[in-house]
Amino acid sequence: MKNILEYLERTAEKYPGRTAVEDDKESLTWKELANLSRRMGTAAGKRITSGDPVVILAPKGPLALAAMFGAVYGGGFYVNVDPGFPSERLREIFRVLHPKLVLIRQEEVPLIRQAGYTGDYCLLHEAAGEEPDLELLERRRKDSRSEDILYGIFTSGSTGTPKGIAVSHRAVIDFITHFTEIFGIDEKDRIGNQAPFDFDVSVKDIYSAVMTGGTLVLIPRHLFSVPAALLDYLCEKKTTVLIWAVSALTMVSALGGFKYRIPSDVRKVMFSGEVMPANQLACWQQALPEAEFVNLYGPTEITCNCTYFPVKGILREEEKLPIGKAFPGRRVFLLTEEGREIREPEKTGEICVAGESLSLGYYHNPTETRRRFRERKSPEGKEERYYRTGDLGFWGKDGNLYFSGRKDFQIKFNGHRIELEEIERVLDQMPGIEKSCCVTDQRKTCLAAFYMGKAIPGEIRLWLKKRLPGYMVPRKIFQTEKLPLTKNGKTDRKALQKRLEDRK
Predict the structure, then answer these.
(1) Fewer Cβ atoms within 10 A, N terminus or C terminus of the chain?
(2) Domain AMP-binding enzyme C-terminal spans what residues (predicted)?
(3) 15 neighbors 25 (Cβ within 8 angstroms)
(4) Nearest CA among 402, 407, 394, 414 for reference residue 472
(5) For residue 207, what pLDDT band results from cuts at 50, 70 and 90?
(6) Model pTM?
């Protein structure tokens, strides 16, 4: 199969009456989802040509999901955009995409006008009422190839300008095939979706359901600030699989959620995005002793993940959690600054990825694409394309890959090179600390730590002095009830940096 819609149609034919997607307000069966997507595809197809981007400016929900598939039925690719984005970011996204069509709710129309968009738009409820034009949809399908773009996801660029990562049908089909086979996801699973649709963690949720016939359970964002309500929702929806950001999981465990209720139907917990603190992982393992836990790693540019590590047993506080071994079809290797491959254990280099499921690059940005996506001779002597992640890692003596921080989080402070994540790892091992985050101010003149937990700053400073060089001990240590999160569930370092500078 070359187009993701073939999997949607196969599943709709096999499980027409089974629930495809549901949230706290509505649900659609697989047959209803496919039919609604064709209606929306007709509305899109009348307004775009093959290969065009379609912006979907709508909250996460069954209708937004149908709009995504509708964009593809119409011959284009979808780009989900959060209605909560400031108009300046919307303006930058429109500038990169030059979209001919935005699918939108009536209340969001002023947003696109404020962002300077003057092109065509179609209201979601009107697109949902369109009479399907099967001939149009068939023509668009005949024009399609497996290397066509399926979706675009915007991430922050190093220059402050958002970059649109373009991912093909083939990349998703190859990755999700391996993903569902390795982890045994099937039609009986109910996948609890945490991530917004404009983040690639949701790709695993959505397409694991599409390719197996499982049910996609959309979890409202507001529940992630109320552990008891979140756990009630997981239990009521009988969720079996969680593929979440680390901070979303630690919010539940750090705030004592399991003392209230345990989501006993959950059989798989997969996490990514940040380093999982050993004590928080242990909380989840003790609450769900029969569940499988998997550490996933990989940036959006390589389609979700390139390595995985099934966690066996409860880690000791001082143990470092591996990011594991490569998925089938991938080659993961380390390079020095000079481009030499590192094969020796415990020598740090930049994590690079080749093989299946690399993204097509950055949309309308050939310069940045050439900078991050390179060519090299593979060990077999063939030319291969690879992606430089900007992450640092090393091979352990056990053969697993270990993450050792972002190049971006490696700072020069008082003449010393410091890994902020190394300080966080030592902090997270301290009894009385649930989770921590280290930041510096913009001028790199003040190193600070923020933490959740009952420990007191004086004790924390003594703990750090016994385990780290003096120049790595934060000058300021702040207790906080919650660490702020970005929209995709990662710790928001920029918000903490601002908090630090406001306190100075």
Answers:
(1) C
(2) 422-490
(3) no
(4) 414
(5) very high
(6) 0.86
